[in-house]
Amino acid sequence: MIVLGLTGSIGMGKTETAKLFRDRGVPTWDADAAVHRLYGPGGAAVEPIRAAIPEAVPGDIVDRGALREFIIVDPDILKAVEAIVHPLVAQDRAAFLRDTDAPIVLLDVPLLFETGLAVDKSIVVTIDADTQRQRVLARGTMPEAVFEDILSRQMPDADKRARADYIIETTSPEAAAAQVDAILAELRGTP
Fold it and tell me: What average pLDDT score do residues 128-154 get?
């Protein structure tokens, strides 16, 4: 099994690129989706986070917006949350890999390099900084200060590209699809 790690900073097109791999039959594990499951009703992170930051768990789920606000105010809270969540995410990822027998799998991990996750090949999605900012702010789901905070905690795009085995430029859906096809053809040993 070849384990691919897909990463890219916020707004670079990672989610759409992961979908391209899925559409081509590559089983895909999504770190963000795993965190959503862990924060949702009955999720394994709910009670430990309630114990650490009660105000971030108003009911049976973790309120991600409230948690984000606490982290912005007190960055040390992030370390406490990571200590709770990272081992649970690792267990979820291990279960995916254990239960998958495909020749190629994709791990969609926003902080692939930052966390030091070992994969066989790394893929970075990228776009210019102006387009990145426009994409994120056009969603209307976060204020610019939150975007800037997230960016400040992510490895710079140039550093990610320097470490990548493959780079996918998400200038258009067609360009990204062609690059995904080329990577899969190479890995599958097909022209």
Answer: 79
**Residue 29 amino acid letter:** W
Residues 125 and 186 in one domain: yes
| Residue whose structure tokens are 């970075």 | 124
CATH code, domain with 14: 3.40.50.300
- DSSP letters spanning 82-133: HHHHHHHHHHHHHHHHHT---SEEEEE-TTHHHHT---SEEEEEE--HHHHH
Domain membership of residue 73 as a residue range: 30-99
Q: Among all chains, which residue has been given the structure tokens 């916020």?
A: 10
Distance CA 21, CA 28 (A): 8
The overall longest dimension of the chain from CA atoms, in Å, is 55
Percentage of the chain surpassing pLDDT 90? 57
* Pair 85, 163 in one domain: no
| 48-85 residue pLDDT tens | 999 988 989 988 999 888 888 888 788 788 888 989 99
